[in-house]
Amino acid sequence: MNKTSFAVYAESITKKYKDVTAADNISLGVNEGEIYGLIGPDGAGKTTMLRIIAGILKPDSGSVYVCGHSCDTEHDAVKDSIAYMSQKFGLYPDLTVWENIKFYADLYGVEKHGLKEHIEDLLDFSYMRPFKKRQAGRLSGGMKQKLQLVCALVHKPEVLLLDEPTNGVDPVSRRDFWKILYKLVADGMTIVMSTAYLDEAERCSRIGLMNAGRVIAEGSPDEVVKNSGLNMLSVRCGNCRKASATLKKEFGADRVHAFGDKFRIFSADISADRKKLTEMSADFIVTDEIPVLEDIFMSMQKDMSADDRILSRVTDDIARRSGESLKVTGLTKKFGDFTAVNSINLTVPYGEIFGFLGPNGAGKSTTIKMLCGLLPPTSGSGRVGGMDVMKDAEKIKASIGYMSQKFSLYEDLKVYENIDFYGGIYGLKNAELERRRDWALELSGLRDRKNEMTSVLVGGWRQRLALACSILHKPSIVFLDEPTSGADPASRRLFWAIINELALHGVTVFVSTHYMEEAEYCDRLALIFRGEMIAMGRPDVLKSEMMRDNIIEVKVNRPQDYIEDLTAVRGVMDVSLFGAGLHLRTEDISAEEGIAGFFRERKISADVRKVLPSMEDVFVSMIEKADPEGKNV
Amino acid sequence: MFSPRRLKAMVIKEFIHIIRDWRSLFLAIAIPVMLILLFGYALNTDLKNIPTGVVDMSNTPQSRELISIFDGSDYFSVKRGYASYEQLQQDMRMKRILTGVIIKRDFADRVLKNEETSVQVLIDGSDANTGRQALNYIQALSMIYNTQIKAERAGLTGYTSGGVQAAVVPRAWYNQGMVSTYMIVPGILAIVMAVIAAMLASVTVAREWETGTMEQLISTPVRRLELTFGKVIPLYCIGLADVIIAVGLGRLVFGVPMRGNPALLFFVATIFLTGVLFFGLVLSINLKKQVLANQIAIVTGFLPTLILSGFVFTIANMPLPIRILTHVFPARYFVSMLKSIYLKGVGLEMIFLNFLFLLIYTGLMVLIANKRLKMRLN
To answer: Where are the domains of chain B?
Structure first.
C-alpha cells in the first residue's frame, strides 16, 4: 500500500493500556471521499483508533499518515487537515453557538475575510441559524451534536473524524445529521466514524469490523455480510416470548435471537432447519432471511451460554403481582412558565414493558421522574404501585427501581462496593445482602471482576451493573431512562432480554429509548413531544392504524444522490435515508409505479417496494405532523 | 509558530467563562474586600483606651495630676475610682478593667518633701500581649510624670541641678506611630493575590479535562503557550483589579499612605501575580481534578503567605529550618518588597535581590506549567 494515495493510512498500530490491548497491529487505509465506519462491540478499540488517527494519542508502535502527513513528525500539518469530534460534548456550555464557532474558527486560523458569511452559511447548512445566540449548554442533544459538527467543519478539513457522533440523539435529528454528512462527502470530504447504530454502519462506503483490538473484516457492508458466510432463517409466531424457550431448547441458545417481533435462527443447513421448524408448530411462519450487520455482530459473540446464565438468574424469587401497577391522570409539571409535561394519562398493568419515545427535551425524563416520586408533579393525581403520586413520594421511591440516564454508579468505588452501597440504601442486611450481591454480580456478568474499579468497566457491563443495583430490592415497577444509550448491539440485546425476563415475571418496566428497533420490543409505546403524549398504543397498532401514509422502500447504490430528485416525483411527500437505502412517504400506493419509473428512465437498477412502516417512520411522521416547521427538534 | 489570533481567541473564551459565571467573579472581588476589612480591624495590635481603675488613697492635687496623665493619654481610660483595694481586685477579676493604679496615702507628702515614692500598678497578665504593651505605656507615662515634677521643681526653686538633662526620645522611622495597619495592608495584598490567583487558576485546565472539552481542544492547532497564557491573562486582569481594590481600601479605610511609585508597585505585583497564577495552573494541569486542585491552591496560597512571608511573624525570629523554608514561597519576597515600596518609598535598586528571587520563581512556574501541559491523551 502506498501511504500517500490514502486520505488516512494506518500501519501496524499497536496500543496497550496496562493489561488491555486496545489496538493490536491494526492496518487500514481510508480512501479520499469515502465514509469509513469503525464498527464493533464496546471495548473493541474504536475510540482508541480514532484518537490515534487524530494525533491526540500516541500509539506504542506503528505509524499513521493523514493526507500524506505523518501524525508523529508532522503533527501540526495533520491537525490543520483534520477535524476530530470526541464522544463527550466538547464544546463550552456557557458560550453561545456563535461564540463557540468563532472560537474554533480562530484556533484554526480561518481566513478572516468573509468569515462571518462562512459561519452564517454553516448555520444555514445545519439548520441552526435561529439558535446562534443560545448558549450551547441549553441546546437539545441533537442540536449539540450538530453544533459540534459545525465547529469541526469551520476550517474546511479534509478528513473528518467522528466518535459515535449520534449517540443519544433522536431519529429526527439523526436524519438531519446524516443529510449533512452526505453533503460533505459529495464535496469530497473523507469521513472516518465509529457508531453503535447499525443502520448508520450500513450507510458507510466501507466498514472495518473490530473486535478485541483487531480489524476482523473490512469492506463494504454488503461484502462484510456476504463474506461472513452466515445463513439464517426468520420465524414469526403468535406468542414469541413463549416460543423463545422451545426454540432455544431445540436449536441451542447461541443460534436463536429475538429480533423485534420475530426470531432469527443461525443455520448451517437451511433446508433441514426449515423443515424442522415447520414441523415444530403450525403457527411458525418461516422465511429465508438475508443477514444484516447486526447478525454478524451477534455471531461474533462466541459464548452465548454466558448470556443464558445471566438470563436464568434475572428473576430470582421476585414476588409476582397482577392488576394495575400504575394509573395516573392529568399529570403535569411546570417549571416557571414552561410546561415540561402537560396532562399525561396512563394506566399500565403489571408485567408490561412500556416504552417512552420522543426527541431530546420532549419531557420523557421529566415524566419518568414524576412517576418515580423524584419530582413532585405540579398537578394531577394517581397511584404508583398502590401509593399516591402526590403524597407518598417517599414510599414510592423505596418500592420502585430507577436507573437514571446518567450513570448512577460511583466510579471510584469497586464493583462490589457499589452493590453494597445500594443494598445499604435499600435496607438489605447480612444474609439477604449477601444473596443479592451474588445475584447482582451474576446479572452484570462481573463475578470474576467484583474487585475492579467501576471506572474501568465499559458499556454493557456498566449498564447491567447499574440495572442490578437499581433492582436489588426486587421492586415490582422499574423505570429505566435511556438505559442502553451508547452500548453496542449485543449488549443492548442482552439488556432487552433481561427486561423481557423481568416483564415475564410480572414486573412493570418503563423504559425510554432512542433506538427505534428497541421500541419494537415494548408492549406499548407512548410518543411524547413537547410535553404532550401525541400517540400511544402497541407498536403494530401504531404502525398500521396511526400511520396513514404509505412507505416505499428504495434500495439503490448511493441513495443520497437521489433524495432531491425523488422529492419531486408525484405523490411523494417525503424522502429520507433509512438504513442503507431510502424510505419514501407517499400519499397512496400508486406512487410506487412513479418511483420505479424514475429509476427506469435513468437506467439505474433499484429495488422499489412497498414495506410496512418501521417504528422510525412512525416516529418521524408523527413528529412532523405535530411540528410541521421543525422548530423544536 | 505562536499565533496571536489563537491567543486572543483563548483570552476571549476565558473572559466569557468568567463573566458568565458571576458567582466566581463576585467571589474574586468580594474575598479581597472581606479579607482586608477583616484583617485590618482584627489584626490591629495597637492598644488604645485600656480600661483602668484607680484607688486614690492620697486624694490630693498631686495624686489627681498623676491620674489625669493616665486619663489624658490615648492609651488609658480611667473608668472609675475605688474606695478599696479589694473592690479594684474584684473588677479586674471580672475583666471590667485591665489595669489598676493604687496611690498610697503618703504619696503627696513624699512628693512635696522631694522624697522617693512609688505607685503600685496592677496589670491583668492573663493576656500576655496586651499586658506587655500596657506595661510599656505605663513606664513611658511615669517617665513623663517624673520629668514634669522635676521641671516644676526646678522652676519653683530656680535651681537647676547638674545641667541639662538628656532625655532619650525614640522615633520609629517609616511608621512613626508604629500603626500596625500600616504593616498589615501590604501583607494582605500578598495574601489576597496569592489566594485569589491560585484559586482561580487551579480550576481552569482541570475543568476542561473534567468536562471533556480538553480532548477536543488538543485536537486543534492550539499551542501550549497560547493555551497557558490565554488562560492566565484574563485572571491576571482580575488580580490587578484586586490590587487596586486593596490599595484603595488601605488608603480610604485605614489611611495607609502609599509612599512609593505606584508604577513600581504594579510592576512587582505583575511578576508576583504571574508566578502565583502559573502555580495554580501547574496544580490544575497535574491534578486534573477541580476540587482537589482548588483546595490545594487555597491552602498553599493562604497559609505560607500568612505565616512564612514575614507579614505577621518576623522571619528573623524563626528557627533556621523554617527560615530556609520561607525562601520557597514567593510571598516572602513580595511582602518584603511591598513594605519597602509602600512605606519607605524606595526604588527598584533597593529591592533588587528580592525582585530577582521573585523573577526566578515566576519564570520557573511558567516553565513547569508549559512543560507539564501535555497536548496528548495519556
So the answer is: 17-43+179-372, 50-157
- Chain A nearest-CA distance from B286, in A, is 18
List pLDDT tens digits, range A562-621: 888 888 888 888 888 888 889 898 888 788 888 888 999 988 888 888 888 888 888 888
The answer to whether the Cβ–Cβ distance between A84 and B222 falls below 8 Å is no
Based on the fold, state whether residues A383 and A485 are members of the same structural domain: yes
| CA-based radius of gyration for chain B | 29
- Give yes or no: residues A518 and A594 share one domain: no
What CATH number is associated with residue A573? 3.30.70.980
Same domain, A180 and A215: yes
Q: How far is B129 from chain A (nearest CA, A)?
A: 50
Half-sphere exposure of B245 (CA within 13 A, CB side): 20
Instruction: Decide if B216 and A79 are in contact by the 8 Å CB cutoff.
Output: no
Identity of the residue numbered A263:
F
- Supply A50's cell numbers: 480514532
Q: According to CATH, what is the number of the domain B50-157?
A: 3.40.1710.10
Domain count, chain A: 4
- What is the per-residue pLDDT across A214-246, written as a single tens digit (0 to 9) for each? 998 999 988 898 888 888 888 887 666 667 777
Q: Which of A364, A368, A318, A304 is nearest to A497 (CA)?
A: A304
For B19, nearest residue in chain A (alpha carbons): A94
Q: Which domain holds residue A131?
A: 3-220
Same domain? For A449 and A568 the reply is no
Q: Which residues contact A500 (CB under 8 A, 6 or more apart)?
A: A241, A258, A353, A521
Residues A475 and A562 in one domain: no
pTM of the model: 0.80
Q: Which residue of A has its CA nearest to B10?
A: A103
SS (H, E, C) A83-127: EEECCCCCCCCCCEHHHHHHHHHHHCCCCCCCHHHHHHHHHHHCC
Taken as a whole, chain B contains a residue count of 378
Final residue of a structural domain among A220, A248, A276 = A220
Cβ neighbours of A80 in B, within 8 Å: 221
